[in-house]
TrEMBL record:
Coiled coil: none annotated. InterPro entries: ACMSD, Amidohydro-rel, Metal_Hydrolase. It holds the Pfam family Amidohydro_2. One of its GO terms (cellular component) is cytoplasm. This is 2-amino-3-carboxymuconate-6-semialdehyde decarboxylase. Keywords: Lyase. Residues 10-315 form the Amidohydrolase-related domain. It comes from the Bacteria. GO terms for biological process: secondary metabolic process. GO terms for molecular function: carboxy-lyase activity; hydrolase activity. The lineage of its organism: Bacteria, Bacillati, Actinomycetota, Actinomycetes, Micromonosporales.
Length: 317
C-alpha cells in the first residue's frame, strides 16, 4: 500500500550507485581532490568515519551495503521502492555515466528519468550532452562545481551552456561543500560569483542549485533574486546548517526561499542514493510538513513537489 500525501510527488534528485560511480571518481582525481593518492584518501576516510557513523545513528540510517552485482537488480529495487513510497517520477542525476543511467531509465521508463553527468571540461562535452539528450533521452545535465578544472563562466564552457540552452534542458550545479565528512570544503572554481555571471550570460538556460546552495545560501538567494533563470533544489538532509555561524533551520531555508523567489523556482529533491536506506521518506515528509505549517496554499505545494520539476523536465506544458 502506497502513502497518500494528498499530492503527487516528482523527485528531482536521486543518485544511482553513487559510491561506485567511476565518472565522478575521475572528476575527483582531475580536480586534485586526493593530492596524496590512495594513502591520503584512506587516512582521511578513517579519521572521518566516526562523523559519518554519528550522522547515520542520529537519523536512524543503516550502514550502506555494496552495490548489487547486477545493476538491473538494483534498478528493479529502486522501482519497487518508489512505487511503495508513492513517488510518481524520480530523476537519477548520476548513475555511472550517461549510457549507464540511460539504461537504468529505459528499464523503468514509467518511473525514472535521468541526467547526463560527464566531465564538462572534457573534449566534446557539448556534443556528448547533445547525444545524451537527443539519442538517449536524458533530461538535463548534472555537475559538481567544486570538481571543475576551470571556471563556470569560462569561455571553454560556452558551447556546453549553449547546447543545454538550445536543447531546453536544465543544468543542476552543486556549489559549496562536496561529499560527506572529510569531503572537499571548497573547490578552486565553481563559486556563486561564477554561477551568477554564467546565468546572466545565458538567460534562457535553466540553472538549478541543489541543497539550498549549502554554505552559499545567502549568495544563492541574491543570485536567484537577480537571475530569474536560477532555481533552488531542496534535496538532502541539509545537515550543513549546523556549521553556519548563525542559527539556521530547514524551516528558515524554505521561508527565505519562498519569500525571495516564490514557489515556482523551488524544486523538491530527496538525494536518495543507497540501500538499505532506500528512498528517504523522512526528508520528503519533513519538507512537506514544514511547507504545510508555513501555510503554503495547495497550488504552491503542487508546484514545489511536482509541477516545477515536470515543467523543467519537459513533462508538461
Amino acid at each position: 500500500m502506497t502513502v497518500d500525501r494528498g499530492l503527487e510527488i516528482v523527485d528531482f534528485h536521486l543518485h544511482f550507485r553513487i559510491g561506485a560511480d567511476e565518472t565522478i571518481h575521475a572528476c575527483e582525481e582531475a580536480a586534485g581532490m586526493h593530492p596524496g593518492g590512495a594513502h591520503e584518501r584512506a587516512v582521511r576516510s578513517a579519521a572521518s568515519a566516526p562523523y559519518a557513523t554519528a550522522w547515520r545513528q542520529a537519523w536512524g540510517f543503516p550502514d550502506p551495503e555494496p552495490p548489487a552485482p547486477d545493476w538491473r537488480d538494483e534498478a528493479d529495487r529502486w522501482a519497487e521502492e518508489l512505487r511503495r513510497v508513492g513517488v510518481r517520477k524520480a530523476v537519477f542525476v548520476t548513475g555511472g555515466g550517461n549510457d549507464a543511467v540511460a539504461d537504468v531509465v529505459d528499464r523503468h521508463p514509467d518511473l525514472l528519468l535521468g541526467f547526463a553527468h560527464h566531465d564538462p571540461y572534457a573534449p566534446g562535452a557539448a556534443a556528448e550532452l547533445d547525444r545524451a539528450v537527443t539519442e538517449r533521452g536524458l533530461r538535463g545535465l548534472k555537475l559538481f562545481a567544486p570538481l571543475l578544472r576551470g571556471p563556470l563562466d569560462g569561455e571553454d564552457l560556452d558551447s556546453l551552456w549553449g547546447a543545454a540552452q538550445r536543447l531546453g534542458v536544465p543544468v543542476l550545479i552543486h556549489i559549496g561543500h562536496y561529499g560527506s565528512a572529510g569531503g572537499l570544503t571548497v573547490g578552486r572554481y565553481g563559486g556563486p560569483d561564477e554561477l551568477v555571471r554564467m546565468a546572466r550570460r545565458f538567460p534562457e538556460l535553466t540553472v538549478v542549485v541543489p541543497h539550498f546552495g549549502v554554505q552559499h545560501v545567502q549568495d544563492l538567494l541574491f543570485a536567484a533574486w537577480g537571475c530569474p533563470n536560477i532555481h533552488v533544489d531542496t534535496s538532502g538532509s541539509n545537515q550543513w546548517v549546523r556549521w553556519m555561524p548563525y542559527r539556521l533551520t530547514l524551516e528558515d531555508l524554505f521561508r527565505r526561499c519562498y519569500e525571495t523567489i516564490g514557489p515556482h523556482r523551488i524544486v523538491f529533491g530527496s538525494d536518495s542514493s543507497w540501500f538499505p536506506r532506500g528512498y528517504v521518506t523522512r526528508y520528503l515528509d519533513d519538507q512537506l510538513r514544514i511547507c504545510r505549517e508555513l501555510g503554503l496554499p495547495d497550488d504552491h505545494l503542487r508546484a514545489i513537489f511536482a509541477g516545477n520539476a515536470e515543467r523543467l523536465l519537459g513533462l508538461s506544458d
